[in-house]
Amino acid sequence: MNAHVENILFNAENTALLNQPTDADSLKAALRTLGGGVSIITAGEGETRTGATVTSATALSVEPARMLVSLNRSSSTWPVVERYGHFGINIVGAAHEEIANQFAGRGGLRGPARYRGAEWTTAVSGAPLLVDAVAAIDCVVEEAIERHSHVIVIGTVLAIRLGTGRSLLYQDGRYHAVA
């Protein structure tokens, strides 16, 4: 069923919503209402390191241990993940807002410059991991599925490191600390 038809069926009893368009801006507005856990995806080595802040990292399955992340194909992160075949998922907390902003591209930092101001270690796969992350998950790429503007990356989990604290959430354009 296409989105337009579902929208009409979904709103059959609420005529006020019938006129809501199903365009990209409307979808973004709807998704901004959904809070998501903040993770920093890291990949590469040395001067080829890069990464991105995402709310799209999630478990695909726990047995076998597989993670899923959606990366924009035009980002600097996807080509590095593809080249090295690894990625780290760094689940961050309230103390990591500045580093999350750096990896989100705020301030114009790119590549290895995004790693400034934090302590990093190298995972089994070779991916960089944030030393004081709430949790860090080391993955190798099992499969990459290109769809539209993004790549759905499925990773085999090699190692997990649990830190302390609670994860940071992102909703409506702002970070929120979990109490």
Automatic annotation (TrEMBL):
The keyword Oxidoreductase applies. Pfam families: Flavin_Reduct. Residues 31-177 form the Flavin reductase like domain. InterPro entries: Flavin_Rdtase-like_dom, NADH-dep_flavin_reductase, Split_barrel_FMN-bd. SMART domains: Flavin_Reduct. Transmembrane segments: none annotated. The keyword Transit peptide does not apply. Keywords: Oxidoreductase, Plasmid. Belongs to the non-flavoprotein flavin reductase family. This is Flavin reductase family protein. It comes from Shinella sedimenti.
